[in-house]
Write a structure and sequence with these properties.
Elements lengths: L1 E4 L4 H16 L3 H8 L10 H9 L29 E5 L7 E11 L2 E13 L5 E10 L1
Antiparallel strand pairs: 1-5, 2-3, 3-4, 4-5
Length: 138
């Protein structure tokens, strides 16, 4: 589980997500699943679902390409002209959801519109939150 301080900055959340993207680029899906899970619409998935959702991606940004792997975000060029890397904070609520974050994944060396969407969940300790992978979609 990836645990962050309650007062973590947006930049630190994005940095933590980049650590997850680094694991995806190494195709370490089990490590990603153990670290941030994969909770599509409340259904607990598995590491193989993460891999499958990346590999089945299709886009006009990649004409004629049908094999996709996450690549190093530091070296990604072209593709999606406005790759999203953002954090949204929620008002205090009873659901325990503290916020959400989206990160467009670099695929095959180019920025894509395939988004890794995360949620920030309040843990029992009021000073900590957990970063969880909610879904991968475009």
């Amino acid at each position: 589980m990836m645990v962050l301080e309650h007062d973590v900055s947006d930049a630190a959340v994005i940095s933590s997500i980049r650590d997850v993207v680094d694991l995806l680029a190494k195709q370490e899906y089990e490590a990603v699943f153990k670290l941030v899970g994969y909770t599509m619409a409340g259904i607990t998935a598995s590491a193989s679902w993460i891999e499958s959702d990346i590999k089945r991606y299709r886009s006009e940004l990649y004409p004629g390409i049908s094999e996709f792997v996450v690549s190093d975000w530091r070296a990604a060029q072209e593709g999606n002209p406005n790759p999203k890397q953002e954090v949204v904070r929620y008002k205090e609520n009873s659901s325990g959801l503290f916020g959400a974050a989206s990160f467009h994944l670099p695929l095959n060396g180019k920025w894509s519109d395939l988004s890794a969407d995360f949620i920030l969940v309040q843990l029992n300790s009021e000073s900590r939150i957990s970063l969880k992978l909610e879904e991968i979609c475009s």
